[in-house]
Amino acid sequence: MASSSFSATATISSSHHQSQSLLFNKPFTHNSFIFNKKSPSLRRHLKLRASPSVAPVDQTAAALPLPLPDFDFNDYMLTKADRVNAALDQSIPLAHPIKIHEAMRYSLLAGGKRVRPVLCLAACEMVGGDDSLALPMACATEMIHTMSLIHDDLPCMDNDDLRRGLPTNHKKYGEDTAILAGDALLSFSFEHVAVRTPKTVSSDRVVRAIAELGSAVGSAGLVAGQIVDIASEGDEDVTLEDLEYIHIHKTARLLEAAVVCGAILGGADDESVERARRYSRCVGLLFQVVDDILDVTKSSEELGKTAGKDLASDKATYPKLLGLEGARRFAAELVDRANGELAGFDPAKAAPLYHFANYIATRQN
């Protein structure tokens, strides 16, 4: 069986701990919970094995290997991604007007890791549900994510020409069509959940999941992070707390919604939903920390998008504020905290989510 592993630092400097005020010490604006710094130790709950097959996020700090459940993660990823891709392909057929549907499909089916939809399915299964219950929601999270990429690449936003190794949507179809394609994907995502979620899921849970997804996109979620990010460009006074606000909202919130919605649709109780939420908050921020690291350590060819954009536009990033090694240590801490939140679930059912945290921490593009 294939597996992966990571190394997490046992301790982080006290000054680094003090800097994590927004994520770990303050309530998130969307809800009232606060991260619990005393999460149960993973080692007390699982008998797991370690594997040296994947390089750790933090290669310089003293670290201890944290074993993961014995699980074929690569096969799981490929199987679920294929399932999601087939569902996405069927969800938006080529129809009149051809140009808008072609533009929607161009970005939606351009590849990508399908992190959010697979996380949605994994969370549903973790709490005992069949993944078919969450498949429409999984597709919806990818539609919204794709919308955010189309709009983020526009000249008035990040002004990028390359996405997933291909010309960005506005380069292919023009700015007007790109904007409309993003708008259409956003609106259709909610319709898709409402119409396609199996009737075996109670209407209360469907409405709760739709509300969760909506809150992740609007002025208390993705849009909030994007507008503050734009306002912060070139600002030398941006703090670590400001940066965390941007990325908790811009990046982590949609990933969080994918996991939370999967758990809701899978039948989770409130306590399990909140554990899933805390896990995904850490993983969502981890995704951005690693993205920032890759932006300064990888080439455009390796990334499939323009490298060094943040540096060129003088944007605040984790390597810029913490240093490259400090950013790697923070990533290692986020992995440890994320896995601690899974300790209360069945290890076999939670295995994909353990591996997800490691996968995101060690990804190379």
Number of strands: 4
Give a short account of the largest sheet.
2 strands, antiparallel
Helix-strand sequence: EHHHEHHHHEEHHHHHHHHHHH
**Content-based structural category:** mainly alpha
State mean pLDDT (0 to 100 scale): 81
Strand order of the largest sheet: 1-2
Q: Judging from the principal axes of the Cα atoms, what is the shape?
A: globular
- End-to-end Cα distance, whole Å, is 24 Å
Q: Nearest-angstrom radius of gyration?
A: 19 Å
Strand share of the residues? under 5%
Can you count the helices?
A: 18
Low-pLDDT ranges: 1-65
Q: Helix coverage percent of residues?
A: 55-70%
What does this structure look like?
This protein is mainly alpha-helical and 365 residues long. The protein is 63% helix and 3% strand. It is built from 18 helices and 4 strands. It has a two-stranded antiparallel sheet with strand order 1-2. A two-stranded antiparallel ribbon has the order 3-4. Helix 6 (115-126) crosses helix 12 (240-265), helix 6 (115-126) packs antiparallel against helix 18 (347-362) and helix 7 (135-152) packs antiparallel against helix 9. It is globular and about 50 Å long. It starts with 5 loop residues before the first strand and ends with a helix.
